[in-house]
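Write out a record, focusing on structure:
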Amino acid sequence: MLSNRRLVLTCAIFLCCNTALLVFFVKFNIGERCYITINKDESIPAVLPENFLSIGIDTSQVQHHNTLDFSNKRFGELAAALAPARVRLGGTLSDLLIFSADENPPLPCQHYVHTSNDSAHPPLECFYLTGSKWTQINEFCKATNLKLLFTFNVLMRNEHGWNSHNALEILKYSHEKKYDIDWQLGNEPNSFHHVFNVTITPQVLAHDFKKLRKLLNTNGYKKSLLVGPDTTRPQEHQPNCLKYMVEFLGNGSHSISVRSWHQYYLNSRTATLEEFWNPKTFDLLKEQIETMQSHTKDYNNIPMWLTETSTSYGGGAPGLSNTYAGSPLWVDKLGLAARYNITSVFRQSFYGGNYSMIDHDFEPLPDWWISVLYKKLVGSKVLNLTCKCSQYQRMYAHCANTKYTSDPTAITIYAVNLQLEKAKFLLNGTAFKSNNLDIDEYIISAPSNNRKTKTILLNGWPLQYESSVPNFKPNHIKYGNHISMPPYSIGFWVIKNTSVENCK
């Protein structure tokens, strides 16, 4: 028989062990209790087009004709999985691109483009886009149900301003082949002095857009959108971006169909994993959208797009932008843009660079999987959602995609959990009064919480590309009134049998 002293010691050890286990369980399995509130009579702050989530391919990918084969079958399958969408062919090299229907152009391209000879700004090399490559790009778009958004070269100039002769060649060639295209003119014009040592004022650019609009109207593209001016993101220490946008709209708003700008969070050369998962980084987009919208509110009748956007500028941060490390920023960007009625978001880039959605071997990377899942589950009507939780959980709600479920009351909630703790959410509000909620749950996570992985898990199983239409299988939750997220995860939940009236 144990002595009293030994019995007390044994009980104390037993009690300490059980207390430690209880603390561990609470910390990693219960997590902070959060409350999601959606009411049955919620208003719809925005209704998005089906091509809201769109993609970009940098013009550098067509600089050398053998860089990217648009006719590759697997490449086409991966792109078609994101349809309907737009694909923007743009970027810095757009303003060095010369079109030639001939395979052997008669003149060197330097004959057309005039940039600075300043030794501090060595001139970038212009290049030709041939008729055969242009045909391949457009046939790719038709085959994959992607609408092309093409950026004309605005640095082709003469004493009268923009020289539109080469643009006219593209229009005539495209109209003859019945290509359906929307258009832009110039890429990040407020940065031309930094990139090319050339300055085009917003007033002059507005005049160039007016010239292009007339050219489109008289050459078979009257119904095409003209999107611009594609300035960089607003920043306090660089007020020229906002100034350029406002002055351009003041002179050229009647010529454009869409107000457009570009957004990145971080510098690819210096960005860290901690910055990628820091809530302060996420908040930058909200501040930038609100700044851009407040300064251009006089033009709210013109839709706003993010025509080029990713985690970090300068091609993406290696090992971060094209891994799971960048996925929460992408999901949050989709949610914020939708909430603020930005009606198209172009992910830079679908292919190429360190921020691509597929790699050079045409293998899907994490953000491709997440984008396909988003397209499958998330509908066009945006819902108001109130989430009482920490800054490390960010959450959004839409009516569910009607192609996913025939239930007219179904909603889709999606969220990111930036903590190494489980997060649990109680479904609150009049939308969830039914005792018969039926939930399809899709949890994206990283193996062993390795946030720099290129292989992600769906409900605990690794995702592997086997067909053009992935078969995502959900977890089914019946009669529950809460949802939860593991550490460092992304979640999508399609909740059926709600009382939300505006989804009907």
